[in-house]
Amino acid sequence: MWGALLCAVTWKVPGHGLPLGLPGQEPGSLSAVSTAPSHLGTGQERSVLMVVKMSSSDPECPQFLFVKVLASRGRLEAVTQQMGYHPQYLDSFLKTQHYLMHMDGPLPFDCRHYIAIMAAARHQCRYLVNLHVLQFLRAGGDPQWLRGLEFIPPKLRNLNEINKILAHRPWLITKEHIEKLLKISEWSWSLAELVHAVVLLAHCHALASFVFGCGCEQDEGLGGRGSLKPLSLGNQCFCEATAGNSCSQELLRINRKRSLDSCMELDSLRERMQRIHVETEGRDEMRLLQQDREEGLSPLADTDGEVTGATNLACYMQDPDFGYQDFARRDEDQTQVFRVQDYSWEDHGFSLVNRLYSDIGHLLDEKFRMVDGLQSSAMAKRQGCEPSVFKRGIWNYIHCMFGIRYDDYDYAEVNQLLERILKVYIKTVTCYPEKTNSEMFDRFWKQFKHSEKVHVNLLILEARMQAELLYALQAITQYMIS
Amino acid sequence: MEKMARVTTALGGNALTGRTMFCHLDAPANAISVCRDAAQVVVAGRNIFKIYSIEEEQFVEKLNLRVGRKPSLNFSCADVVWHQMDENLLATAATNGVVVTWNLGKPSRNKQDQLFTEHKRTVNKVCFHPTEVYMLLSGSQDGYMKCFDLRKKDSVSTFSGQSESVRDVQFSIRDYFTFAATFENGNVQLWDIRRPDRYERMFTAHNGPVFCCDWHPEDRGWLATGGRDKMVKVWDMNTTRAKEIYCVQTIASVARVKWRPECKHHIATCSMMVDHNIYVWDVRRPFIPSAMFEEHKDVTTGIVWRHLHDPYFLLSGSKDSTLYQHIFKDASQPIDRANPEGLCYSLYGDLAFAAKESLVSSDSNRKPYIGDRRHPIFFKRKLDPTEQFEYISSCSALSVFETDVESGSMDWFVHTAKQYALAGRPLAELCDHNAKVAKGLDRNQVAQTWTMLRIIYSSLGTVASTNLNHSMGKGSTALPLMNSFNLKDIPAGLGSESRLDRSKGESRTENILMDSSSTLINNEDNEETEGSDVPADYLLGDVEADEDELYMMDHENPHAEEQEYSLPQEAFPLRHEIVDNPSALDHLQDKADSPHVSGNEAETVGQGRLAPRQRQRGRDGVADARGVLLADLHLPLALREPPALRLLQPHRAGHAALLRRAGRRADGRVRAHRAGGAHPQGDRRADAGALVHVLHRPAAALPALEHLQRGDQAEHLPCHQLPQPGFHHPAHQLQQLQAAHEQQGLDLRQVSAVCQHVCRVSPRGEGALCLVPGLQPRRPPAAHHEVAGDQLPLPRRLWPSLRVHLSPPECT
């Protein structure tokens, strides 16, 4: 159907940053005319008309997906462009997001978007908030609600508590929270609705991490700073179809050059990787976190003042001071640790979520498997280790920050694999995404290609989402048992 | 020879004795295994590793294998297995990837023997060779299977699953060299231990992880697998391609399967999530478990038959930190509780009702049913669907009620929809109003029902009678008061509550029965007779789900009538809106103005228009009027019991969750059907928890009548008489049907678990689709129907029930 597709795309009206989409535009329509803010222009109004001929029938090429998104949503979001580096993943991500937001489900459409707003607001992610405010209104939501939590029905407001907990300290969620929401009352939630809401919350929290991690937020927030390379990617992909591959090759060249610059760092990384196999450290995962503390990995308190615009979103939040706290800092009580071997996504989470909100389990499962299977052979080759080892290290490190432990993982590996500066980045993006700043983004990771940076951000996104889901679903399971 | 020897040692002496018993463990169990002498059991988990001896009356702790001060992850067991040849040999799989063997013959306190640290990730399963003492096999999350010779320090061979996690490994009982491995991606592989380079066979068994497998103990080459997709499948490995020969659909992901000793077709299963029960299935009868153990309070993690050749003792460990011995004679048998009844509408609105013969009274006034000539022949019958149930010695009666074509006029329905008020006023007023409306449309029985509702819910007796009279007085003079609860008939001293009591009201019910049936017979040709008119709970449609609340109100608040009544929040399936206390009335008016008719209301049409000239067949059918009466009576009867009692279901825990998910709407539905069991002639046992299973399939899919029927015999053995127990997903029925009949055009397009709707293609083709609401009996509308797109010009909260919309009746 998409085989030979003519797509006319128009960009115009930059400035306010709020694109006018085409409501009701179906993904199946053959051509899409869309207005979107120009990332190309100098700020002057100008329109670009491009006719893209899609002759490729490969459904995995990013252009194909971009056109699909553009046609269905009326715009191409920065997040989509970023993920375009990994088309297989993008496809799976879009399917899930579409299902969550726009398909049959227990929650009404406007509420879904409002929940997304609430979730994104916890991380002061104006990019996502703006996006969903628009969609909220388009779905027929009550504009009054946008004035803040005071103006929404108590039922939705009750969700705020678990929103807060899941966003920052998911390990605190208990079956009492679930009980409270489900208790029969005028504003009680049904189990299906709650599960839908929980998946939405986790999705948006994790997506906020991705947005900050990839710098999409800066673009949106500061009105087209335009300095970030990634944003031109989307355009380049379209160019590629018309003007040959020059642009993308340009990009590749830049990346390659950059990676050459960082050969030094690479070598050291490789060394560290090899040392792992030699050294045998004690398998004490708590040491990892202690080391984190000593290294001052959870700092950044001083950058607090930098976050502006929090006032805008404060209306969607209660208890804005509630933030991430080191899991290990609480106490050394081992029993509190979440053991994946006792409650895992594959064995337990999937069955529960799929039972209460049909099909979402399969979509999430596919997404988790997809990110696990993403090939970054170049990265692995250069590091001289198996890609799976590196990925697993990042994944387990993220879960470890939320108190989720794998019996079969030696946490000493993390310290060997991940240099300090990478750990700072991962920790910031995972736990305090709003504190990611552009210097951080530029400063480290010079040894990675941009697509690899995106890849690591995807790992953060998925690991974080799974961590939140595991805690929430475990609480729901305990509620159901009792 | 080996086998023979074991038999004699085991059962030669004394047969096993014991009773159902349990003991508390200190921690949740992950797996259990028995010693070959059937007198000891080992329990392993994250924080427990103990051996218990099984005494006559109790479990006695024999040995704690967790020794040492520092808790080591090597003790955190994911699996445990006891060697079936050597009583001193045990192996455990640790969550940190270590495989440990234990020698109970060691004199020291620490019985740990060998430690294999070759796996990089959690080991999910360990398995001893059935006849080889020193051979141990392990399967791990890291995608490798390793074979160990216990006389050596390292593994002797490694089998690669291509980085796909291994969930279970089992040595074949028949072939010395073969073992089966199941994988997280749904595959099953067969390996030859002599050839570690590649698998012998591979096939995809499940959609999603295959958690477990078990070889049939009797040399049959059968392999049972259980997966996250909630299926248990039995594969015949004797053929060149693995062939699925049986499939059992359970209600939750399958964690363990274990063939029952000495019973060729029996298999025990337990689940990993939500459902805590253990089931023993006869794989030939996949819809209902043949036995069920319901003791555990959390998921069952390990099941094992106590002895290789004794089918009556089952041991189980659970996350609830208990160890149980189940005795087969104490098992609950869901089949005893299930009422084999089926109800189905045909394409043309005919209603077929099948029930156990003992439940329906005999009636000489029956005609044999010759089948409906109108039905196109699209069922290619490959085999007799009842064949598989031949060994079940129960027969049932089938009644078919034909729909009167002329009664298809829908005007009254539109009027009803427009004039009814369901919210915004006190309940009493609403009932009065609606009674009046119904009356005005010549639907006396409905009017009666409204009046009854008023009596039941808005007052306690005294006011009721006046109201009744008042309401009736407004109507026309000649009222066929067929089955109203005329207060004068009721002996004094009984409150309105007890009057409706099923058991006490038995004689009363029979009177009604006589009344109404005679009325019907007399009026056989009178089109106006609405003898089988809309049963109240169907009429109420969505309101039905709120009987509980109404009922409660009755108890707690005698002045409920004064309150303004509004539809409670979940009266409509809340799928697309949570606004601040919306005025339900508005929505209803929207609905009335709309040309579309909700699926629920469409049912009303079907239920209501059974013509009096119903044909019956066989010697034991339901008398027409009785069927009718049932419909009319079942609301009050259903209301008599608190909901918990009404849902007498085998899958208690699992279904509780299901019901919670489906919301009280579903609850209401079940209730409504169950009331069908309140047949006046029915035996009381059945009444207590009778559950009518409604199967969704075209009437033409019922077992071929000509085949079953010779002469005037009323017997048939419908294959649907034993559906899955309890509240089941209608899609499964359709799937079964599809498989059984190879029906073309019947297609599961879309099954939404939330609204329990099934989308199916009309058997007649024409590109028409219809959405069948979950468990509700419904009649496909007379006109064609189609699936509406998402752009229905209707309030969104009405969407789920409005997917089916009728085109205006084409009056013939």
From TrEMBL, chain A:
It comes from the Eukaryota. Belongs to the sestrin family. This is Sestrin 3. Transmembrane segments: none annotated. Its main location: cytoplasm. One of its GO terms (molecular function) is L-leucine binding. The keyword Electron transport does not apply. SUPFAM superfamilies: AhpD-like. Pfam families: PA26 (PF04636). It is found in: Cytoplasm. GO terms for biological process: cellular response to L-leucine; cellular response to leucine starvation; negative regulation of TORC1 signaling; positive regulation of macroautophagy; regulation of response to reactive oxygen species. The keyword Cytoplasm applies. It catalyses: a hydroperoxide + L-cysteinyl-[protein] = S-hydroxy-L-cysteinyl-[protein] + an alcohol. GO terms for cellular component: cytoplasm; nucleus. Keywords: Cytoplasm, Oxidoreductase. It comes from Ficedula albicollis (Collared flycatcher).
UniProtKB/TrEMBL annotation, chain B:
Gene3D superfamilies: YVTN repeat-like/Quinoprotein amine dehydrogenase. The keyword RNA-binding does not apply. SMART domains: WD40. Keywords: Autophagy, Lysosome, Membrane, Metal-binding, Repeat, Transferase, Ubl conjugation pathway, WD repeat, Zinc, Zinc-finger. The keyword Transport does not apply. Its EC number is 2.3.2.27. Transmembrane segments: none annotated. WD repeats lie at residues 116-158, 203-245. GO terms for molecular function: ubiquitin protein ligase activity; zinc ion binding. InterPro entries: WD40/YVTN_repeat-like_dom_sf, WD40_repeat_CS, WD40_repeat_dom_sf, WD40_rpt, WDR24. GO terms for biological process: autophagy; cellular response to amino acid starvation; cytoplasmic translation; negative regulation of TORC1 signaling; negative regulation of translational initiation; positive regulation of macroautophagy; positive regulation of TORC1 signaling; positive regulation of translational initiation. Pathway: Protein modification; protein ubiquitination. It catalyses: S-ubiquitinyl-[E2 ubiquitin-conjugating enzyme]-L-cysteine + [acceptor protein]-L-lysine = [E2 ubiquitin-conjugating enzyme]-L-cysteine + N(6)-ubiquitinyl-[acceptor protein]-L-lysine. Belongs to the WD repeat WDR24 family. Catalytic component of the GATOR2 complex, a multiprotein complex that acts as an activator of the amino acid-sensing branch of the mTORC1 signaling pathway. The GATOR2 complex indirectly activates mTORC1 through the inhibition of the GATOR1 subcomplex. GATOR2 probably acts as an E3 ubiquitin-protein ligase toward GATOR1. In the presence of abundant amino acids, the GATOR2 complex mediates ubiquitination of the NPRL2 core component of the GATOR1 complex, leading to GATOR1 inactivation. In the absence of amino acids, GATOR2 is inhibited, activating the GATOR1 complex. This is GATOR2 complex protein WDR24. The gene is WDR24.
